[in-house]
Target: Amylo-alpha-16-glucosidase
Amino acid sequence: MTPDLLITQEKISLDGKTFIPAEQLPMPEWPRVVSERPQPTLTVKDDDLFLVTDTIGNISGCSLNEGNPSMGLFCCDTRFLNRLELQIEGRSPILLGSTAEKGFSLSVLCTNPRIDDRLKADNIGIRREIVLNGALFEEIEISNYSTTTVSFELSISFDADFVDLFEVRGYGRDNRGKLLRLVEPKPEDGTTWNGDSGGSVSLHAETHKAEFLTLAYQGLDGLVMESRIQFQHRLPDYFKGYTAVWQLELATHETLKIGYRINLLTNNTSSSTVSAAFTLGQAKAAELMEEQNWVQQITRISSDKSILNHIIDRAEQDMYLLRQSFGKYKTVSAGVPWFSTLFGRDSIITASQTLILNSQIAKETLLLLAAYQGKTEDEWREEEPGKILHELRLGEMARCQEIPHTPYYGTVDATPLWLMLYGEYYIWTHDHETLEQLWPNAIAAMDWIDFHLQATGYLSYYRKSKRGLTNQGWKDSGDCIVDRKGDLANGSIALCEVQAYVYSAKIRLAEIARMKKRLDLADRWQEEARNLKMRFNRDFWIEDQDFCALALDGEGKQVDSVTSNPGHCLQLGIFTPEKAYSVAERLRAPDMFNGWGIRTLSSLSPAYNPMGYHIGSVWPHDNSLIAMGLRSLGLIDQALELFQGIFDMTSQQPYQRPPELFCGYERNGDNAPVQYPVACTPQAWATGSVFQLLQMIVNLVPDAQNNCLRIIDPALPESINQLSFHNLRVGTTILDLEFERSGNTTACRVAKKRGNLRVVIEA
Model:
């Protein structure tokens, strides 16, 4: 149902509510408590909502130009809250402890500072709990631990700038919409505000005893967005602007509770796809029930080492948290805070990494991306028939065509990666219905690839959209495609790993075509794969470095830097054996392997920067893909070394959660891995790397179509003696596997099996 929206020059009426431009009704501001130093943050997420606060649970009025710009409450790429600040007598509480361990909620315990002679320090206990579930809920318990009755003022300041996430990230805008004030009919006490229209409305600047506060904004596209705050338990005694104030008097050891719920609205309908509960208790129960349903569906993995179990448990929970609804499908968003949306490449790689955990992620990812598959030629969005999208955005800048993300298709690798996942998913599940349903999409994707192979024999990219990405592989920053001199490559870029993805896609799709009795397609794709392999080993090989080039530039010249990209090729079979082993050996040299993982760029390169996003940092997912390649070559010890480095790094992270990336500084003695300042966490393919690395060490090779699971030469590292997989699904069979290491050998036992799957253990 379309909301009743009426716009005049002076006011906006929406379903019985009246708004006026904010500049017509100035609001008093409650002073902020400003920290001199950058604050650590807490992050919570529920489906399409996420919240980033400081460690006390506050957002101290962050703006685009100060503070931590990533703080706020976000939904659909819009910041619905940029201030959420609890104060006691105008001062910030003193933190005792806080955690966002559960992922969808955070809890904070704090106390009061000394307040003149009226309130001694540490006499008031303040316990905050914030939960996301289609809305934001907070309950605050305030306890008096002194021996006398105390009186003090507690306040919570709210504000919302409704800025687009791309604006938060630094994208400039020439124009913005306008902030609004909700106005009410003239109240009984006679307090009025007389606007230019001459109408009488309540001042709404300092009022008493109210249940609601409303923050609002009208975008350039006309949509009205609101953060509607409903207070629960004890109502505020008065409001000063958008600050709720309680005058509290607590007897000794008395506890009272205040709370509120924030609903996010767009044109008076919920902005979130999740139906919001009414109370925090109901929200928490709904989240715990959904999480429990998730846990029952996944493979549960455990070991004899507590730190590894913490890492696995965290990764299982983060995969649950990162799931996000897009229409009727639910897939994994790329990462919080910057990439909490649908991506092609990220979602596909994560789905592949987690087939061992839950194949439903892969199924819904395939179906969702197929629904968005390119259908027309659109240079602004870089859409083409058959092409798989790069990124979908829902914010005001996308809606107003200021960015092309509606969706944006500027990615060279998502299409072959989609085809690879299409084949992998079938190998794990034997889901013939989905295979058939997506076959036309697979043909369209391969047609797109083949069309772009015609010019040079390689799949390359070149930006067409003026607001698109310059680089369109997984290393998509502007400074990362460099040659051995550190100079940027020019023209159309053909990345080495993308050619390996194309090779693998053709091999896998040929097998499916043969199964479908399409021998014409099977033979053609196999022949094309053979020819691609021959060209690739000739054109990409750097003879004097005995290594593979990062790419070929627009003139067909090698971009001859030493990078991690060729490591993605190792498990896909495009290298000749001798070249594969040469790449594997070079990746483990000290200029590439820093002790925690393999760098994105050699430290010997003139362009190397250990703090560079793609020019010297270390990415967990990059390393898990390389580890799979080393394993496929039989280089088990080298693969286990990578496993150990990434898990050692992860064990030192907050909540034992692998970050999107970390700095490339050398591991020396007891030094900790150096954090990348703005890495996403949780982040999808970093989380997925946990499961891919576990899959690597036990080396499961499913073949659900032939009702078989091969376990080839499993090898637990020295840090693990036992590893078990419960509720593992291959085809229609559910089984439990137990691995145990004795010396240099690892034994496998099928502890339980429901189904007739053949399990073949090959040592």
In short: Residues 236 and 246 are 5 Å apart (CA to CA). The chain has two domains: 13-182+207-280, 297-697. The two ends are 63 Å apart (CA to CA).
